[in-house]
Each structure stands twice: as C-alpha cells, then as structure tokens.
Design a protein that fits this description.
By secondary structure, the protein is mainly alpha-helical. It has a single domain, classed as Orthogonal Bundle (434 Repressor (Amino-terminal Domain)), CATH 1.10.260. Helix content is 63%, strand content 0%. Helix 3 crosses helix 5. The longest helix has 17 residues.
C-alpha cells in the first residue's frame, strides 16, 4: 500500500488570512510611524507597558472590551468604533480560524 505524500503535508494558512489576521497590528504600526512616534513614546502616552504595545504590534489582539484598544486609539487619533474595533474583530476572526 503506497501513501500519497500530499496527505502527509501540513496545511498552510492562506496568505490572505495571515494578512487579515495582522490587520490590527499593521494599522497600529503604520499610524504610529506616520505620527513619528517610537513604540516607547506611544506606550507612554497611552499609559501602558512597552511590552504590551509591542505585543499588539506583533499580532496579539486584546479581548473585546479591553480598555487597551481605546487607549491606543486615543493615542494614535484613530476612530475607536469605526477602525479599532472593526480591525480587532477582523484580526480576531482570522486568527481563530483553523489551519
């Protein structure tokens, strides 16, 4: 009995899903850089630890209702409801999909 090698391959994430899973992280990093803020400066203004800011820019999505998102939105002058919550939900959804 021969085994098909393709059945043993590890499923890969669709590149579009990875892109969407990191939507929140990319939008925060892009906006911070456009304002000329370092991570340290942005974290200080937002009143949070640098490590938490780095985690968000690295792809971690805070839980729904976490005040961290509002602090980041205010620091970066981003609309909280129209952008931050939407991007967080899109990222959260795509990170939760299997495979």
């Amino acid at each position: 009995m021969s085994m098909n090698n393709s059945s043993l391959s590890t499923p890969r994430r669709n590149p579009d899903r990875i892109y969407m899973a990191l939507l929140l992280a990319r939008s925060i990093q892009t906006r911070r850089e456009s304002l000329g803020l370092s991570i340290q400066e942005a974290a200080y203004v937002a009143g949070m630890e640098v490590s938490r800011w780095c985690a968000v820019e690295g792809g971690w999505v805070p839980a729904e209702g976490d005040p961290l998102l509002r602090s980041i939105a205010e620091t970066l002058e981003i609309d909280y409801h129209m952008k931050m919550c939407l991007y967080a939900e899109i990222s959260r959804y795509n990170q939760a999909l299997p495979g």
